[in-house]
C-alpha cells in the first residue's frame, strides 16, 4: 500500500511538469524573415533577393504581402496599431539628421490606407525613406507577443515552484510575498534573454523592445543599474535583480500585471487536491497544460 501511495504521489506531484526550462530568447534578421515568409506566397529565392535589394519598391515581389509578413514575423507589425517603432528601430542604421525619428512618425501618421498589406509596405517605406538604412542580415532581438509573455510567466512560476497559496494571493492582486515573485521574475529575465547572467545587468535595449518604454534607453536608467549594483549589498543575485527591476525599470507595474494574470490562469486550472503551503504549482499536469506556443502561427 505504501508503495502505491509513493507511486501515485510521484505521478500527481511532479515539481515542474509541463514547463519548458530552456532559454527562449529569439534573434532574427530581416533577411531571414523574408526567406521564411516567401513559401507562404509561393515566391522563389530570386524574388526574395529582388525584394531585399530594393524593399522600398518591391514591384513583382508578391505585391505588399511579403513586407507585411516580414514585419509580422519580427513581431513588428499590428494590423490595428501599425508598425512597432520599439521593434523595427533595431533593423536600421539611422540617418545623420537629428529629426529622423520624428520625420518617420509624421510620414506614417499621414498614411490613409485601408488595405493592411499596402499600409505595412508604405509604413516600411517611411522608415526606409526617413529613418535610416536597412540592415538586412544582422540578427536582432525579437520580442514575445502578448500570448508568449503570459506563457513565459506561467512557466516561470512552474520552474520556480511557486506555492499554490502564493499564486492564489497574486491572482487577487496581493504582491506581498516579494521573494516568491523575485524568483519567478529572475527566471523569466534569464530565459527571456533580458538579463546578462554573468553581470546581473539588464540588456536595456531588449527590455525596451519588449515593453516599449523609451526611458529604458536613458542614461538615467543605466546609472540606476550601476548604483544598485554598487550600493545594494547582497550575495543573493535574485534579490539584486529584483531591486533593479523595482528601482530602475519602468516595467515593474506591467510585470506585476503579467504576474497577476498568469497566476490567475494557473489557479483557474488548479486540480482538486492541490493546495496548501507545501504544494508547488507543478502539482498536476493539468495546471501546466500548454494551450499556445511562444510564437503562435500568425494568420495572414
From TrEMBL:
GO MF, one example: odorant binding
GO term, biological process aspect, one: sensory perception of smell
Name of this protein: (northern house mosquito) hypothetical protein
Superkingdom per UniProt: Eukaryota
Disulfide bond keyword on record: yes
Database matches in Gene3D superfamilies: Pheromone/general odorant binding protein domain
Entry similarity comment: Belongs to the PBP/GOBP family.
Species, as recorded: Culex pipiens
InterPro entries assigned: PBP/GOBP, PBP_GOBP_sf
Signal recorded as keyword: yes
Gene Ontology, cellular component aspect: extracellular space
Compartments where found: Secreted
Taxonomy of the source species: Eukaryota, Metazoa, Ecdysozoa, Arthropoda, Hexapoda
PANTHER family to which the protein is assigned, alphabetical: GENERAL ODORANT-BINDING PROTEIN 99A-RELATED, ODORANT BINDING PROTEIN-RELATED
Swiss-Prot/TrEMBL keywords: Disulfide bond, Secreted, Signal
Signal peptide bounds: 1-18
